[in-house]
């Protein structure tokens, strides 16, 4: 009887240890990935601060701000950028306001200069903004409104997109689907 009890206790201990090992392995597998080192920056304004008026509709000659990035994923073959206002939803739709989209930036690039024109080449392809024209649409919330949140998002892609100039944000998102290997963002505020 004593040997049966010893065998039973041994089996029970082994099952408990095996169960503990499985739980520990599951917890370890579910651990979140380390924070991304991929960063997007602008020399035009500090992250989370007010966007200067020279990049807004308050300036009739508004230009796009310079952007730069660092530590993209090694698998990146190209980059795409979306600039949008998260506080506005035209016609009560699900899509917020698109101010600028562009793609075809080679993986070797680390920046985009200020003042990019709609007809810029160098491989960069631009799509339509809220006004249905290619190029940068400066921030322009309604007068007196609470400052809006404007976000630049850069996507590292494992391919170079074959997407025509003048494509929409929805077209860009569809083309990028399944090819995003990294993402970084940069926030600015603007009100008038």
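^ structure tokens above, recovered residues below v
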């Amino acid at each position: 009887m004593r040997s049966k009890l010893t065998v039973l206790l041994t089996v029970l201990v082994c099952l408990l240890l095996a169960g503990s090992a499985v739980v520990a392995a599951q917890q370890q597998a579910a651990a979140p990935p380390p924070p991304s080192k991929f960063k997007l920056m602008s020399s035009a304004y500090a992250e989370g601060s007010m966007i200067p008026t020279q990049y807004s509709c308050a300036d009739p000659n508004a230009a796009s701000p310079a952007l730069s990035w660092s530590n993209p994923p090694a698998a990146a073959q190209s980059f795409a950028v979306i600039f949008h206002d998260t506080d506005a939803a035209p016609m009560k739709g699900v899509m917020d306001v698109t101010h600028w989209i562009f793609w075809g930036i080679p993986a070797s690039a680390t920046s985009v200069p200020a003042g990019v024109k709609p007809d810029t080449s160098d491989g960069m392809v631009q799509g339509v903004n809220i006004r249905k024209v290619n190029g940068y649409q400066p921030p322009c919330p309604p007068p007196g409104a609470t400052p809006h949140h404007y976000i630049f998002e850069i996507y590292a892609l494992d391919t170079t997109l074959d997407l025509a100039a003048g494509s929409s944000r929805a077209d860009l998102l569809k083309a990028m689907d399944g090819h995003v290997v990294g993402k970084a963002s940069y926030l600015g505020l603007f009100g008038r």
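The chain has two domains: 1-31, 39-190.
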